[in-house]
Write a structure and sequence with these properties.
Blueprint: H1 2-31, H2 43-57, H3 72-100
Amino acid sequence: MKKHLVLTVSLMLGLAAASALRISIHQGSSKAGISNPSWDANGAYRDGLFQGKQAALEHAPNMAPVGRWSRSSDRAAFAAGYETGYGSLMLENEVARSDSR
């Protein structure tokens, strides 16, 4: 009987630890700029995020080159990533400018 109790408690603690780890990993990816968990593995979104950050670094106009992707769902994901990347870097630049004044 004691063995079953120990096994059950161990299993419950293991599941709780795994759940806590999954939540902390998910929160870390959200802080990195990916707002939709389904886009973590979306190549078009990640490409847009990168291209948006590059455009903001070069002070280029905010015009996402969605023609890079052929499917409309990929174009939408790319545009969302581009806006996120461009906007986050431009916001950081604005905060840095206001702090330096």
